[in-house]
Amino acid sequence: GRPIANTELHVLDAHFELVPVGWPGELYIGGLGVVRGYHRRPDLTAERFLPDPFGPRTGARLYRTGDLVRRLPDGRLTFLGRVDHQVKVRGHRIELGEIESVLTAHPALREAVVVARDERPGDLASRRLVAYVVPAAGAPFDGTAELAARATPERVEQVLDAQERHRLPNGLPVAHLSAEQTGGIYREIFEQEIYLRHGIALPDGACVFDVGANVGLFTLWVGTRARRARIFAFEPIPPTCAVLRANVELYGLDARVFPLGLSDRAEEADFTFYPRMAGLSGRFAQEDRAVTRSIVERWMADSGGRVEAAEIEAAVDDLLQSETWRCRLAPLSAVIREQGIERIDLLKVDVERSELQVLRGIAGEDWPKIRQIVLEIHSEELLREAVALLEERGYRVAADDFISAGEGMNSVYMVYAVHPAVEAAVAAPALALADLRDQVAAQLPAYMVPSLFVPLAALPLTPNGKIDRKALPAPQAVRLEPERAYAAPENEMQRSVARVWEELLHLDRVGIHDNFFEIGGNSLLLVEAHGRLRTALGREVTLVDLMRHPTIASLGRYLAQDAGAGEGGGQERHEKAQDRGRSQRLGLEKLARGRARPRSGAGEGA
After folding, report:
1. How far apart are CA 63 and CA 52, in angstroms?
2. Dihedral (C-alpha) 472, 469, 598, 448: value to the nearest 10 degrees?
3. How many other β-carbons are positioned within 10 Å of the β-carbon of residue 386?
């Protein structure tokens, strides 16, 4: 954009000099709108508010924003990223935001974030750039209007009949048990979207297990966010299950309702049911009073009134009037077998301190079928056990402190688990990763081209909605042509080359059609591969040979032909090849050390 009235915008380099139009630099704000500093924060003031060398006023200050921008020829500024996302890779200082800006200009991308990762912790030589990209799949599906059209006044009267009713803020009428609970759950699921954080996605045609469905707001939300979703909803307490069934029927959702709970074994157990606090109902009621008191105090504080402690306790007593129901439970794997389930795209579990029993009811052979899991966990101890169990099964796990602990109660955490197989297979048909590499290579120097491109359904976010770079998954090699099947080495020579590439690129396997530069290789690694291959193959291979034949299959064919043609070449041919190889290696090493056009803020580091 452009500066507002009484504001000046300056784009400066690391030496506090103005950069030319089109060059990246840090944004500084000057003018009458800039204050003198932070209140009682002299350290932060000294860091962010600097003397203004461009303004006419004595004592004027520039505010250092930390934003990386570029000034366009028409005077407008375009945001590139944050200066604190500057990294050093193989001797070059690189602005990650500049790479991200080039990537997000591609029409097939919605978002992109670039990070520098060390393959071996502490080994700067193993550092490489990794781009995480989210395909531009268009605007998220919103089926609210379609569902609203189904809930005609006549249908509402017919289906909900004598049920208590509530109209959600999005206009959808539902049967419910408690207005306060329904409103709170709606905010969490529909407005805060707590089930779509840390890379969790809800694809069209998703198979969703709603464990602890309560009155069905999560099930209803799935119907608004995914086309053709199949839902399996579990609610063991009969009065709550009756409301769930009514809401599913009202909206004609493709949802099967099971009047049972899930556990680690087939059994029956007593459940405590609170008609006015249905969300707290469950097998373990030891903390329900403390939780309810905290909720009541929050309600009172929001209303602005002063309430005596005795009144709060009376309100808690009223809300916790309870009934006991004997309920049936079954292991999740038993349901998977009975229903013939081959894939669960999202397993949602909200069962009031019974989360581990649900997870322990999953047989070993069924874990690979479950792609994503979101749990609500009700203590730090349960959190540690759940995270350990999920990580042991190979999931990438993130956790948010959802409700901080109050007096006499535990914190509540949201746990997000994504299976690596999901992240490696997310590339959209319209997204050609090779095109992304070509776009970056056409606009930026070779040292700024990411070694790996990792497609994700969504970027992980922190609780306040910012990109959580620490939660980005460790990259697996993603072939730029994912439709091409893995082809194993066919002979000893190919196996030798594959072993060198696997060791060098830290990959579990390399197929004979995989391109060295498209699975993490770069010019510096090519120099190292050159030396290792000479030893492994017991013969001379030039760097030009490796660059011209970047797949194991093409290199193998070339070496086989060269060996046949060279049988009569003798010692002279061998010596010339060695000289040529040494010359090429030295030249490429020099190139890798930094022969690239200079860039403001991204040149050679000290």
Report:
1. 9
2. 10
3. 23
Distance CA 511, CA 482 (A): 12
Look up tokens 């590339």; give the residue. 427
- Residue 531 scores a pLDDT above 90: no
Q: What value does the CA radius of gyration of the chain take, rounded to a whole number of Å?
A: 30
- The domain containing residue 303 runs over which residues? 286-321
- Between CA 208 and CA 550 the distance in angstroms is 43
Q: Is residue 35 part of a domain?
A: yes
Q: Are residues 21 and 80 in the same domain?
A: yes
Q: Which tokens sit at 174?
A: 């539902």
Tokens representing residue 306 in the block: 């002063």
List CB contacts of 310: < 8 A, sequence separation 6 or more: none
What distance in Å separates the CA atoms of residue 326 and residue 298, rounded to the nearest whole number? 32
User: Distance between alpha carbon 153 and the CA centroid of its chain, in Å?
Assistant: 41
Q: How far apart are CA 379 and CA 405, in angstroms?
A: 9
Highest mean pLDDT among 65-74, 167-176, 243-252, 411-420: 243-252
78 with 162, same domain? no
pTM (two decimals): 0.53
Q: Is residue 583 part of a domain?
A: yes
Instruction: State the pLDDT confidence band at 410, using cuts at 50, 70 and 90.
Output: low
Model pLDDT, residue 596: 40
* Phi, psi (degrees; rounded to nearest 5) at 317: -60, -40
My answer on whether 113 and 23 are in the same domain is yes
CB atoms within 10 A of CB 228: 9
Place of tokens 């029993």: 357
Q: What is the pLDDT of residue 328?
A: 94
Which residues, at least 6 apart from 336, have a Cβ–Cβ distance to it below 8 Å?
344, 366, 369
Closest CA to 417 of 197, 140, 202: 197
Same domain, 117 and 176: no
What is the predicted pLDDT for the residue at 587?
Answer: 46
CB 188 within 8 A of CB 218: no
Q: Are 162 and 143 in contact (CB under 8 A)?
A: no
Residue in 435, 347, 408 with CA at minimum distance from that of residue 106: 435
346 three-class SS: strand
pLDDT tens by residue, 22-80: 888 889 999 887 888 877 778 878 888 999 988 777 888 999 888 878 888 888 888 77
Q: 24-30 and 127-135 as β-strands: parallel, antiparallel, unpaired?
A: unpaired
Q: 506: pLDDT confidence band, cut at 50, 70 and 90?
A: confident
DSSP secondary structure of 582-598: HHHHHHHHHHHTT-S--
Which of left, alpha, beta for 305 (phi over 0: left; psi -120 to 50: alpha)?
Answer: beta
Q: Which burial class, exposed, middle or buried, applies to 494 when counting CB atoms under 10 A from its CB (0-12, 13-18, 19+)?
A: buried
